[in-house]
Amino acid sequence: MKLYESKIKNGFFFIFYKLVYVCVFALPFIFFTDLKIEIQKLEIWQWVLLGLITSLLMYFYLGITNNDVKLNKSQIEFRRKLFPFNRTTKFKLNEISKITMQHDWTDSILNDFKPKILKYFIIEWVLKLILAEDYKWLKIISKGKSYKFYCFGLEHDYYDNPRPYFEDLFIELAKQGLNVNWTKNNDTYYKELTVRKEELQEKPVPNKT
After folding, report:
1. Which end of the chain is less congested by CB atoms within 10 angstroms, N or C?
2. Which position has the higher pLDDT, 36 or 139?
3. Is 176 helix (H, G, I), strand (E, B) or coil?
């Protein structure tokens, strides 16, 4: 059985990075407006309450966006680890009709949005403030029903990230003969992985006698 771990620490790093990012952009607005005065009026208990709410939201985010994936020759298993979101879901491979994988939320968001300059502004200056860069998920179609599992903490093929990668999972699923595809196939990177999948799933040509 192969394990693809969605690491909680990767989610913590993302949240910390985003909080710093938002604060840097918010500081000029705070210090040059009346909001600075209002913030100074906050009492200790209000800061504590704000911290607790932020912590709960962080925990909720980490709980629902991290599924470990276990794969063997007969089944695939998805497991959440954090209480009370911990849950295990299993699928027999021979009952799966289709698997779709997404690596990056920009692969599918606002595809038909115009004008392009406004789309660029929304993605780069609004959505990137709140959405994870490593927006990874798998959608399983089994027995006519659809199931989606987020794996934000699973490593991807980038510089010196430790294996296994999200891309390795794609290749392993292809080796099992499953109908697995990316949400975006027109990018060079995804094309290369798709070609690799097709090579693995090519049926051997019988010898002619």
Report:
1. C
2. 139
3. coil
